[in-house]
Design a protein that fits this description.
5 domains; alpha+beta; 22 helices; four-stranded antiparallel β-sheet; 621 residues
Length: 621
């Protein structure tokens, strides 16, 4: 097969294709080539700002991880539509870019110190209530970020958060709006229900009815299209017994492991910020004044509460908790690591202002023994070798499956067993045949019409398969006797529902005309002072009740009807509507106001996003 492709590439077909390409290039011009090349690394451009493909790939992966985490470990990842994921991720990146541009135009900003404090105080980065640099690195690695990338992302989120809060927080509602909403929300209604049941026992069906439905809906009664697959499966676990770990590799891995352990230092500081209202010289003079008071014996924590401009730590006596290297400003960190325990630094200038830094404690890591880490290190070292072998074997399987007309050769060369699936349809089956990629490959034209092997399909990170169709069972017309029971049940339910609806609408018309059918006079089920969340009432009935107009006069109810999912029909008689007479308590009014203002703010922010997008110059590549 490969030789045929090579031979054909030298023939008249290839020459014709090349000729067509030359003509197309002549028409489109050289500029198109340069435009394509210049945008080859970008996914979009938003008001002149590029959104790179790398950003898009990372956003798609982040979205996939979040979805899989929400859906649970048993969810089949192949069911996720890559095209939809990509479109959603790109839409999110474009929206994010627009919001960041708007935040920049509005001059929103924050200090790097505020970012540090947010990281230090985030519970996910803490162990036993204290910041852990190791935990921080572990979490952001799982999210796919380096430290710098995470800080940049977090900084952007803070800017967008400021913009959102500025818009959403400006929303307000009037007292009249609050009172009107409260009247509707606290409204109660008195009504009664009369159920007209769908009586399936009263339905009479003939064999001709069933046959007529069968003939009219013949396309519904076909046997399902099904396939039986042959497949070979390559698993990563099969390679673990084939690899060995040398003592030299084990020792090297151990040294690398313990080299990553670093001490953590617990710092406290007093900060005097340099700002428009306080120059660098004034800030330095102020911190030197605090330093003199320290030297005279005053308490560091008390002075931090009194003087520190770092609101996040001042209340804690300036305590920043434990952190490793790479967290603080470089000048701050250099001074901190030069201190002995309980020593206080000289004034230190960082990009935030002037600091006095105190070292409260040092946590030296325990260095585990080689014996305690051996199992883990051996497992990790084997995993690296296995990963390489697995990738190489998967590539070999891909090539063999492409070249072969069946699975015999790939199975023989890689020592794999050819397995056979149960028959399944386009909706999938169980196990392997529930995988969406397997289903797509099984029902592809290449598999059904040409009998080709599929490409390798990744079932999970440890397993790949190649499948081919062994048997194709095409749809066939089912005999009437095979489906008559299901037709009879369906027609019975439909006709019972239709009869209930017809009878209900007849009664409804009579009631609206002022008539009261004698046989129905005692069967109404009353419900008094029903709220919008009334228990014991069908939601569809409750919705209909609160959509009905008020009775014009007492003693003259209004009527409505609604069909239920089970085919029953319910008549509704609305006799009264009550609204709260007492004025709202201050607590209630505050709660309603907060809810309405929050909803209005969210609507304002959503409208602002749409306006940004409508006015923007956006190009997707």
């Amino acid at each position: 097969m490969l030789q045929n492709i090579r031979d054909n590439s030298q023939g008249w077909i290839a020459k014709t294709i090349i000729g067509l390409i030359v003509v197309l290039l002549a028409f489109t011009g050289v500029e198109a080539i340069f435009t394509s090349t210049s945008n080859s690394q970008n996914a979009a451009e938003v008001n002149g700002e590029k959104v790179s493909l790398n950003q898009l790939v990372q956003a798609v992966e982040m979205q996939r991880r979040q979805l899989l985490q929400q859906l649970g470990k048993d969810f089949d990842a192949s069911l996720l539509d890559e095209k939809l994921l990509r479109e959603a991720a790109l839409k999110g990146l474009i929206e994010r870019t627009l919001l960041l541009q708007a935040a920049g135009d509005a001059d929103f900003a924050f200090s790097e110190q505020a970012l540090d404090q947010l990281i230090l105080q985030t519970p996910e980065f803490q162990v036993e209530g204290k910041f852990s640099a190791e935990r921080f690195d572990q979490v952001i690695r799982q999210l796919g970020y380096s430290r710098l990338q995470f800080r940049q992302m977090l900084a952007q989120e803070m800017l967008i958060g400021q913009l959102r809060a500025g818009l959403a927080g400006s929303a307000f509602v009037t007292d009249a709006q609050v009172e009107a909403f409260a009247r509707l929300e606290k409204q109660t209604r008195d009504f009664a229900m009369l159920k007209v049941p769908a009586d399936t026992a009263a339905v009479q069906l003939s064999e001709d009815d069933v046959k007529a439905y069968y003939e009219a809906q013949a396309a519904q009664f076909m046997s399902p299209e099904q396939v039986v697959l042959e497949y070979v499966e390559l698993t990563k676990d099969a390679f673990f017994e084939q690899v060995e770990v040398s003592d030299e590799d084990l020792q090297s891995a151990y040294q690398s492991e313990i080299a990553n352990l670093a001490e953590q230092r617990r710092a406290a500081h007093i900060l005097v910020e340099v700002s428009d209202s306080l120059s660098d010289e004034q800030a330095k003079a102020k911190i030197e004044g605090v330093q003199k008071r320290l030297q005279q014996g005053e308490d560091f924590a008390a002075l931090a509460k009194e003087f520190s401009d770092d609101l996040g730590s001042a209340g804690e006596g300036g305590d920043l908790g434990y952190a490793g290297q790479g967290v603080y400003d470089p000048a701050f960190e250099e001074a901190l690591y030069a201190l002995g325990e309980n020593q206080v630094s000289a004034p230190v200038r960082s990009e935030f202002g002037w600091h006095l830094i105190k070292l409260l404690g040092v946590q030296a890591p325990e260095v585990p023994s080689l014996a305690s880490l051996k199992d883990k290190l051996v497992r990790d070292l084997k995993a690296r070798q296995v990963e390489q072998r697995f990738v190489e074997a998967a590539k070999q399987l891909e090539d063999l499956a492409f070249e072969a007309s069946d699975l015999d050769q790939p199975a023989e060369e890689l020592g794999l067993e050819i397995k056979t699936s149960e028959a399944f349809g386009r909706e999938g089956g169980e196990g392997l045949t529930a995988n969406r990629q397997v289903i797509q490959a099984a029902f592809s034209e290449d598999a059904l019409e040409d009998g080709r092997n599929s490409s390798t399909i990744e079932l999970d990170p440890n397993t790949v398969v190649v499948v081919r169709v062994k048997e194709h069972k095409k749809p066939e017309q089912l005999a009437l006797d095979q489906v008559s029971d299901s037709i009879r049940a369906h027609l019975t339910q439909v006709r019972a529902s239709e009869a209930a609806k017809a009878k209900g609408e007849e009664l409804l018309a009579a009631l609206r005309d002022g008539q009261t059918p004698a046989e129905q006079a005692q069967t109404w089920q009353p419900v008094e002072a029903a709220t919008r969340s009334q228990e014991g009432v069908e939601p569809s009935v409750l919705q209909a009740v609160f959509r009905m107009p008020k009775p014009v006069d007492a003693g003259q109810p209004t009527f409505a009807g609604v069909g239920l999912g089970n085919g029953d029909f319910v008549l509704i008689r609305l006799s009264g509507v009550s609204e709260p007479q007492e004025p709202l308590a201050d607590e209630e009014k505050s709660m309603y106001r907060q809810f309405l203002a929050s909803r209005s703010g969210q609507q304002d922010f959503a409208a602002f996003r749409k306006q940004l997008e409508a006015r923007a110059d956006i190009e997707r590549f």
